[in-house]
Fold these 2 entries.
Entry 1:
Amino acid sequence: MPELPEVELVAQSLDKLARGRRIVAAKLIRERLAPESSPALFAERLSGAAIRFVHRRGKHILFDLDNKRTLITHLRMSGRFMMLPAERDNPKFTHAVFYFDDETRLLFQDQRHFGLMKIVETSRLGEAKEIQKLAPEPFSDAFSLKYLRDTLKTSKRTVKEFLLDQTKVCGLGNIYASESMFLANIDPKKIANKLSKKKAEALYDKIREILSEAVSQGSTLNVDPENIDGSYYIDGFETRWRVYDREDLPCTHCKTPIIRLKQGGRSTYFCRKCQR
Ligand SMILES: [Zn+2]
């Protein structure tokens, strides 16, 4: 599942590709992609609107439209956007299509059917349930060291589970949670409210470091408009993970084999020697 850096990069690419384009028609093919709109309503609310800009909040991609509405999108497991020229057919698992005035179209494809779309009034975006409860953005002033320390104090769950809770820290998933705990030398099984001041400070720094590193590395990649998301996964990211997906491989710091642990049904990778 894409995490903050990947979603940020996809939003940036969509902003470059779609900003200023007018949607002449919008087609909802798989109704459950947008459970609060019928296909007719989906078409009515989006047709004729120009995309002012595309941005991100948490792991949501937001299309700000000039008809006072915002289209909220969550890629979830396998959702992706593709910009296609008129001559190309829709690929399999195309769930929504946005036709532009120059005959190109943006489509949303989702093999595993978990993606979500919702149209809201832009002035009430903050009230949407998807957005309302999200923790402050990791790069915003609101996400301060004090915020993180105070929030850690309120949680009796493990640090790993704490980091995945989007209402506490926003944008991390399995990959960047593992990576930031590794860099901060924190045992993922540690209980959040037991974390020392020093470790909390390290965690704060490493969360921001790891996310900004991933965004800046991704920004240098060439993006194929027909495969926006894939442009970030295939060559870009996997090779530089420090612990994630490295079970049994030597720790990059001390050579101890990396352990994979199940926490809340999700995998955590860590070095039992470096992370205590
Ligand atoms: Zn190690």
Entry 2:
Amino acid sequence: MFEIYNSYTKKKEKFKPVTEGKMNIYTCGPTVYSNAHVGNFSAFLMADILVRYFKYSGYDVKWIMNITDVGHLTDDNEVTDDGEDKLEAASKRENKTVWEIARHYEELFMKDIKDLRLLPAFKYPRASEHVEEMIDMIKTLEEKDVIYETSDGLYFDISKFKKYGNLSGNVIESLQAGARVEVNEDKRSAFDFALWKKLIGKNENHIMKWDSPWGSGFPGWHIECSAMSKRYLGETLDFHTGGEDNKFPHHESEIAQSETANDKKYVNYWMHKSRVVVNNEKMSKSLGNFFTVQDLLKLGYTPESIRFTFVSVHYRSKLNFTEEKLQESQKTIDKFNEFIQFIIKSEETQENKSIASIIKSTKQQFEKAMDDDLNVSGALAPLFGFMKSIRKQITKTGISSENKEEILSFLRSMNSIFEVFDFEEKKEKELSADDQNIVDELIKKRDQFRAEKNWAEADKVRDELNKMGVKIEDKK
Ligand SMILES: [Zn+2]
């Protein structure tokens, strides 16, 4: 039975799907005005692991991740509705049209997604292509008398939605008290949020614009996700995921819009990825610890090691991202891959009756941990024990070709979630004469260090040999 920590109720709950056997999930996707950084990807990868585990468990999953290409303002927490559209700002900065910016960064995002092996979502709807649905939803909200018009746009009156603040824990009264000087004096409350922005003031020359009953303009960021999730997944979602920083005001406002417009519960389970820090500091361009996926690949890290670093830590623990962690991840992946090669190359002798029971108990432990709020680190632990026991069995009793297939197919099912293992048989290659000389020299050097009991140096030489694709085994 799958249990998940619901960040709305702040407790673990048993999962019950809206429709038996199905699971639908909406993930707030990127705002395509610059390269997504690894912090963004940690949230997308959390959703990927959830989707993959539900598929593994036999669910029919429908995953929607939107592309925000209009309406997300530069003022990060956006409660003032005062910033400039992030895409319009990027268009000036890079001297490209706003449409070029949108499609360019969307393309780069899709490349990152592929590199990090995220499962493809059912669809990546663009906000700019769903303005009609947004206008429809705003009209419904207008009929329900929860919005009002000012000279510069349409706003949701949060005092009309009593549950506003339940997700983030922000109480309206304390929000009001702590409010900064309101820029827009027409607003009834500083925290009323924009549904539609008109083309006046700093938005006078906004390039992306649409006609609406309230004049030409563009949608607010929050209404996009309410409208697109309804269009593709319906009025009540099983899961809605995002980063911790999406909770307020973005998700809080989505709830207000969707529940008022649809008269239905919007989301059954909310999941938020804890913020990522880099070398124990907040990631920022000025600190120089701002990594994009492509930055890390250029530094020589494999996509697998990046993926594993994010998915192997529980999504609710704070991840301190460091290059050492990437190296450790690579070592762990190598361990699994060496084991896979060991299995592939093991001599087929006789049937080993213990293999099936080792697989069965490992699988149970794995699922027990994953069912407990996606405890990935807890789910990985039995896999290390698994490798040890299997190796022991092979040395002791040997295995049959059926045993081999059982082991490999179990590991493949694990990899349908982790997606970092390599099952391709590695053929041994002949060394060139030059390489053979280098290898001989290195082995001599290593023997020397070992004779001197200088294990650290001996290990270094072995690593060097490994890098050349040469594996050393010390036998009696
Ligand atoms: Zn969103």
